[in-house]
Amino acid sequence: MKKLFFCILIILWKFSVVAQEVQYVALDTFPFIKYEADTLVFDKDTSLLGNFFKKMERLIENNEGEISIIQIGGSHIQAGTMSHTIRRNLLLAYPTLISNRGFVFPYSVAPKCNNPIDYRVRKNGEFSLVRNVYKDHNKPLNTSGIAVYTSDTFPEITIQFKDSILKFQTHKLTLVGHSQPSYVVPTIWVDSLEYFPTSIDTILGRYVYDVEFEDSFTLHPNCNGDSLQEFTLHSLILENRKPGITFHSIGVNGASVPAYLRCENFARDLDLFRPDLVIFGIGINDAFDADFNAETFEQNYLLLIQKIQAYNPDCAFIFFTNNDSYKRVARRKYQVNRNATEVQRVMYSLAKQTRGAVFDQFEIMGGMTSMYKWYTHKLAKYDRVHFTNEGYVLMGNLFYNAFLHAMKKYQNSNQSLNIE
What we know:
By secondary structure, this protein is α+β, with helices and mostly antiparallel strands. Strands 3, 5, 6, 8, 11, 12 and 14 form a seven-stranded antiparallel sheet that branches. The protein has eleven helices and 20 strands. Helices cover 31% and strands 26% of the residues.
């Protein structure tokens, strides 16, 4: 009898997790948004994405294993609001699966560089910035597409997390960077305790720390102001020992697909991210190029995808179409960017070739010229390219609902995602 009672409890627990999984986020309603388009669009073969949902379902049911999701893009992602909305919704739906915070980077230590919304950054000293948008950059770049460096006297960087509800514990920190000369070793401070690396790989430029914190930590590069000493930071990866879901967001202002292809160590450092699903949102900057060519855009994307597939052939892909946007052609005069439809066509082609899906942001917004309506309703900024915080939250909620709808479809249709 006790055994039967225990089995019933397990079944009820699993049912409650699955029921919780399909709870959608309430959305503000606007007449110009096509809510009926708020879903992931699939081609006939969706096997890779189906395999991802199967792995996620096992994780939810058994509370074992790990899933890593990366969202990659430009300024929409660097701002962090949309990404953190997706991360927050997903992890709070499955609170037992809150795992690593994953990738963070102190963007705002460099002048005129904005930081993601969910953590603040403080600094001492001066730092210089290298981004993948520079065709000639003086530092090799990795998956993050960005780096900061300093030779200032006793510089430091503090990262403090702001989300009072979604909390991450960290037990392991991997710093990707390098010091010149190599005997200059960065340390991590938590409160008044200093932590030295437990392992150093000078070839790959990796420093690993066994360190515990939740709210904040401080990085000391330990330069002493000698012009011959310099420290460069590429990535910070925060991990713990819990099974669950990690949602990385990687964004660089102004980045295009060729910008990420210029990252010499993009493929080499993918093992730090271990992607099971990549959500691509690169394209808005490509489409602003006066010489934009859809075929070249698609071929560049395929080259980037191949780098990820070389690391994980089973990685699944979701492609964001571009948002509708305008180009500034004169003072206070804007013209709609008609390349959005070409980008949209390429994204559907890429999804077909990778057995993935499309989140048709362009169609959901309302199509061509819809950005002006988003602007007049304070969902987009004056430049008619970027959203306001409210707009990014809405788009993040729309994607989250589409993601859950697709997973529910997978669970309820004999492990098929095909749309008849």
